[in-house]
Amino acid sequence: MNPNKDKSWKHHQKKAEEIKYIHSKNQHHPQTNHPASPTKHEEHQKIIHSSTHHETADKKSSNIPNLTSKIDLADNSEIKDDTDKKMYESLNYNLTDNSETINPFPERFSEEIESLKKKIEKYEGKEQNPDDEDEMSEQTGHVSNNVKEKHNQDIAKEEPSHKEEQRESIIGIKTYQKNVKGDILEEYSIKLDGASADIKIIKGEVGTTYTLSTPKISIATNALLNDLREELIAITSVSMQELIDPKAFISLKAKFKEEAIKLLTKKIPTISKETSSLLVGTLIQEMLGIGKIEYLINDPNLEEIVIVSAKEPLRVYSKKYGWLITNILLEKEETTINYANIIARRVGRQITTLNPLLDAHLVTGDRVNAVLYPINTKGNTIVIRKFARDPYTIIDLINNKTCDLESAALLWLAVEYEMNIIISGGTASGKTVLLNACMPFIPPNQRIISIEDTKELILPEFLYWTPLVTRLANAEGKGAVTMIDLLINSLRMRPDRIILGEMRRREEAMVLFEAMHTGHSVYATLHADSAAETISRLTHPPLDIPPNLLGTINLNVVMFRDRRRGIRRVLQIAEIEVEGDSAKANTLYRWSAETDSLVKHSKSSKFFEDISRHTSMSENEINKELQIKKKIILWLIKHNVRKLEDLGMAINLYYQNKELLLKKIAKNDINFVLNYGK
Fold first, then answer.
1. Cα separations (Å) of 584 from 122, 221, 422, 509, 555?
2. Mean pLDDT of 198-206
């Protein structure tokens, strides 16, 4: 007998006995389903700690044998201050605390434990039977195309069996309601890390459902993946920088994928590339992500993902269909806590019953907010607001009627000639989207400093841009970097343009207005539903800006969201006039609900005068500039030049050689424009 095979069998046999032991303990220690029951946690810890294989059981009690438990702290000598050291330490805080993790082997019947042992025997080749070839191929990952196709069809058509639910429950997430009846509005696939999922949007009698289907993974295959997890953690060291830096994180995933494929191929030499990619992709999603929810995060059609509680299915907000119920359900409240802890550790923070709130962001830039029970009386909640991978450009906003050609040209004119712009609107009205869409209009070779709570802005590569992001304090209340800190510091970095994510406090507003007065071009967002309310918000607490300072604002653009129709529109474009100690708005354009378009409202008395004062252009020359910009934008719309970098190339050419660009437009030479400077 092969000694390595025998050793591996002994390992799996030991694991099966361990599971059986834990199960027998569970029978004597019934657990409550209360969202945050201390008794449940205490009993669970008692079961694990009483095991003779304490260390092994502790590792297997977690859905994700935490990658962060292998954080390489050998470079602690490079940690300059106590704050950073504490962040490193917090990353390893209580990583094996079973009250915060998921038992990957939930309660099951004794005969099923015995069945698992038999399947492991088959996996090791001890009881190979030709009649079981199809079953064995699925268990070991050798899934033929026919079997896989038939299996995927079964997933789509049949209700999940008891065993299928158990297989799903191993990773703490299950899908339900597979046989959703109704009309299929849309279907597509999402590929992620070598694995894939099928998405269907189904309109039924009681509403519209977002269904996610992934290939089933058997219990025996999950046992194999658990071994791979442990071996990867043992042989791979991870730095904190790799977990929090987006570029480093991509390299980390590639490193883990390479090592996982090597280990899997060693265990199963005949495994196909397709199956290997599927299993390794699933493993990476669990180790470096948050399971199946990673598919939702990577769905470009979704804006928001909400885990309400373990009692309710996940909900998502679709750009096209609005709020949708999903067929994804977390098995228990501890799963949500586990996910929140994973996110918190990677930003050097903790979320506990004493500190039940978390506001953080993933390495992808997506913003995460978590609230634990009993603050949320329903259970534990996580809300993920997605960061745009492919941001809307001004071309997109014109195409979806958020703004029109004339208003886009006006905004381009304002940005080019360094006018200060405040974008107002309600929550989720599209303020940041419009702000981001206007930034490619900034001329090259100008220093841009952006300041945000969560990184949302994406600017073209050709711009000279330094993005700054705030940081919350650690568990000891140290290490915080506020927006006012960054704003004051940015003025020492010789900026030409300053972009502020959102004005919230008086200190920020005063520094920003001071920057306007000292010759910096400023762009910022503000919560206000109209131009008049913008003035009121600025001049009253908490901002409390003296009205005579508002004259430095050249344009106020107000965004509006109609939830009933699912549309976002530019509601107003206004200039702010100051007379003595009072300020008022003069609305230049206003959105008409009847025609769903922007219409001229009043003639400008200040904006064009400000541009003329800065450029010495006459009103006719300014109007000519507007016509040129409209011509360029219209031509880009015609050729569907909507990608950020492509649009950036066209605008860069405008600033480098305007006459050349107009000649290429006349010749309809789109290829030259898109490849300019490459």
1. 80, 68, 15, 19, 12
2. 90
Determine the pLDDT at residue 122: 52
Asked whether the bond before 374 is cis by omega within 30 degrees of 0, the reply is yes
CA 282 to chain centre: 19
- How far apart CA 217 and CA 170 sit, in angstroms, is 10
Instruction: Report the DSSP beta bridge partners of residue 186.
Output: 201
Which region among 93-97, 245-249, 434-438, 658-662 has the lowest average model confidence (pLDDT)? 93-97
Mean pLDDT of the chain: 77
What is the structure's pLDDT at 65? 39
- AA identity, residue 613: R
pLDDT recorded at residue 198: 93
Going by C-beta distance under 8 Å and a sequence separation of 6 or more, which residues neighbour residue 667? none
- The long-range contacts involving 266-273, CB below 8 angstroms and separated by at least 24 positions, are 267/224, 267/227, 267/228, 268/140, 268/141, 268/142, 270/142, 271/140, 271/141, 271/142, 272/142
Residue type, 295: Y
What gap in Å lies between CA 571 and CA 533, rounded to an integer?
A: 13
**Residue 16, CA distances (Å) to 19, 105, 169, 286 in order:** 5, 10, 17, 22
State residue 504's pLDDT score.
Answer: 87
Give me the count of residues in the chain.
678
| Nearest C-alpha neighbor of 436 from the set 420, 416, 460 | 460
Half-sphere exposure of 462 (CA within 13 A, CB side): 22
Please give the Cα distance from 2 to 8 (Å, whole number). 10
Residue 520, both tokens = 């910096």
Cβ neighbors of 284 (< 8 A, separation 6 or more) are 193, 194, 253, 256, 257, 260
The single-letter code of the amino acid at 380 is: N
Nearest CA among 483, 481, 433, 482 for reference residue 458: 433
Task: Report how far residue 179's alpha carbon sits from residue 108's, in angstroms, rounded to the nearest whole number.
Answer: 25
Chain-centre distance for alpha carbon 310 = 21
Domains contained in the chain, CATH given = 1-387 (3.30.450.380), 394-612 (3.40.50.300)
What is the CA angle 145-219-150, rounded to 5? 25
- Comparing CA positions, the residue from 43, 57, 50 lying closest to residue 14 is 57
Q: Round to whole Å and give the CA distance between 652 and 632.
A: 12
Q: What angle do helix axes 405-416 and 607-615 make, rounded to 10 degrees?
A: 40
Provide the token pair at 435.
């702000």
Q: Which pLDDT belongs to residue 229?
A: 86
Which of 444, 426, 453 lies closest to 526 in space, CA to CA?
Answer: 426
Kindly report the CA angle at 387 between 385 and 390, in degrees rounded to 5?
Answer: 140
Query: Is 156:178 a contact under the CB 8 Å cutoff?
Result: yes
Whose CA is closest to 557, among 578, 529, 579?
529
Q: Which structure tokens are listed for 28?
A: 């004597």
At 546, the amino acid letter reads: P
pTM over 0.70: no
Cβ pair 112, 169 in contact under 8 A: no
| Cβ count near 340 (within 10 Å) | 27
Q: Would you say residue 111 has pLDDT above 80?
A: no
Residue 172 per-residue DSSP state: T
Alpha-carbon distances of 314 from 63, 180, 191, 267, 676, rounded to whole Å? 19, 16, 20, 36, 46
